[in-house]
Each structure stands twice: as structure tokens, then as C-alpha cells.
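Journal club prep — side note

Before the paper discussion, L.F. wants everyone to see what a predicted structure for a comparable chain looks like in C-alpha cell form. Sequence:
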Amino acid sequence: MLKGFDTINRTVGENMDGTILIEILKGIGRFFLNPLLYVAIISAIYLGYRRVKRERKFFNRRILGGWSELKNMLAMGFVLSVIISLFSLVIGLTVTLELLTVVFLVSLVALLIYTYHLLSPAIVMAVAFCAIVWMQWQDWSYSIGSIELSGANVVDGLVITIPVLTGLLLMAEGILIRRYGGRFASPIVETTKRGLNGIGYYSKQLWVLPVFTIIPGEGIQSFAPYWPQFTIGAEQFSLIVFPFIIGFQQMVRQKLPVKVYPKMGRNIIFVGELVLIVGLTAYFLPVLGAAALALGAISRTIIGIYYSRSEDRNSYAVIRSEKGIMIAGVLPDSPAAKMGLVAGEVIKRVNGQDVFTEEELYKALQINAAHCRLEVLDHAGEIRLTQHVVHRDDNYKIGLLVVN
């Protein structure tokens, strides 16, 4: 519930003493007790395993280590988590135990069924809000272990809180996709309608955003009496750091990942900004809160469908070329990466020799490995020259994945 921005802001400075700081540290510590975090960790490890296995199947080598998805999940969303937490605490954005429980359940199901489309904040929060509205309408109450979830008086104020939080998380999702969506885009060999080998790029990722949330009242004390509480004015609040899980999966074919994912991320950021603005206006007209959630869920779904439909198997940006060897991928920190080679470029000549197959590429590299010289056709169709030292015994470690 949103307990009046001005009330909390006016009194928070008077109460932010050593006791509250200790309670904040306890709230951070108990973040690590949330089982959703560990399910997400296991899922990220499994993602890395599946990606490495797939890359070795198609190219006999992997591009990144199997732990890369886990590192990305835990590290990339930290700064965004801090920003959202500060915004939430400053304006006094409070949530209910019921909301966090439904978000937990929806996120858990999406992780277990391996369907990360459902982990967009627009979808998770819209489902959570609908579930809470239904509980209130039916006046239902549930018990999950020692947790009592009441269907009464849980929508009051959440019609403002949920859209605002959704807008912030959607903007975070867009930023993460724009910056990191292409980092783990894994090349997949597919057969075109003409029987040629084309390359699709599949990105499937998870991010954890540990966000400070404020739960009003004593609801959390019913199953965790040790949980820290503090008082602002006449109200009691509990602090908890909740792991919001953001998932992403998208295949691209007709364009390179560096062209698609940044644009997709910007579209999602724009939707998040709209949801946030409309959610804030719900402070004056509560019905706009529900409208903001509907806007976010529908818009995010349309974005996903649009990019999926536009990347069908009709054409490929990376496909076998008659002009030379098409690059499908480049290993990080490899000689190929140091030469500035990127996916979608075509290697025409190596040390003065025309090359059309991987075998011809490595034979040409041995001609003058100490001063390897390549002629490359870039994305604009223009020829550029690049060179690098490739040791004779390391010809097959140049770091290229090519289309055969």
C-alpha cells in the first residue's frame, strides 16, 4: 500500500537511527533465505550448460564458459536494484505480503517450466494484481505453511504501488536487454528452405534484482516473529529485500543481435516510462493504476510477438556466402577478436589467398602466420584490411566460428 508520500518522507529522517540501519542489514541478510534466489541460480547454471552443449554440437567449441549466465544474472542488475530501492524508499512505496507471495509463485512457476517470457515484470505484476483482486472480490483467505494470506483490504493502495513498481522494473528490463541481450546470443545452425546452412542467434537470460520493499503492519510477524520492524509515525513497517527475477528469451535471424536487442530494449524502456507515469497519476485517480498494468502487459506482449514474427526462417543475416567465409561468431579475447572480426562479416582473402571453406582458411593462415593479413567484407559491404600474429601451432585457435 502507498501510505502517503508526504507522511513517510516527513518522518523518515527523524527515525533513521542506528536501529533502523541494523534492521536494513538484517533485511539484506534475509534476502539470501529466499528460495526463489536459489531456484534462479540453478536455472542460470542450467542455461549455461544448455548453451555450451548446443555450441559444441554445432561448432565443436563453446564461446563463453558455462558459468557466464550465472555471473551475468547476479552482477548486471545490481546498480538498477539500488536505484529502484532508493526510489521506493524515498517515496514510501509499500507492498503487501500477499503481493510478494503471488510474485514469488508466478516467478517460481515460470522458472520451473523454463518459459522466461512470463518473467517480464509487466506479466508477473499484472498476474499478481489480478490474483489479489480476485482474492478480495471472493473474500478468500489462504494459508501457506505459517503464512496467512487474506483476501480482504489488500487492493487498497496497491492500485498505485504495483503500477509504479512495474514501471520501474520494466525500465530495468529494457536497460538490461539493450545492454546485455546480445552478449549471450548463441549461434544456432539451421537449414534454410533452399537447403543451406543459416545462423540464428538465441538469447535466453535471467537477471536478479534484489529490491528493498516495505511491508506495512505486522503481517510478516505471523510467521517470522524475529523479523525486524520499525515505526514511522503511528505505523509499523518491516523491511525485506525481495529478489525480483527478470527473464528474457528471443531468437533473431534476419538481423544481427547487435541490431535487434538494443532497439527492443529501447521499446521496453519506453513502455516502462508510460506505465510509471500513468501509475503515478493513479494517486489522484485509482482506476488509472489498473489501466497502467493493462498497458504494460499488453504492450510487452505485443513487443515480444512482433520481434518473434519478424525473425522467421524466410531469410538470414548470416548464411553461407559465395564471396568468402561467413563469420558466425568470434570467441572473446581470441586473435580473431583482436583483429576486430565480428559475426556477419565475410573473410574474402587470407594472406593473399581466396578462401571459401574453413579448411582453406586454416591452410592460408599457415602461409604467413607471423604476419597474418585478412581482407574482410564488413556489414556495409566494404572491404577492410586487418592483421594479427597467429602462431603456427595455434592456427586452429584463431577463435572463429564460421558457416560451412
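L.F.'s comment for the group: The longest helix spans residues 35-59. Keep this in mind when we get to the figures.
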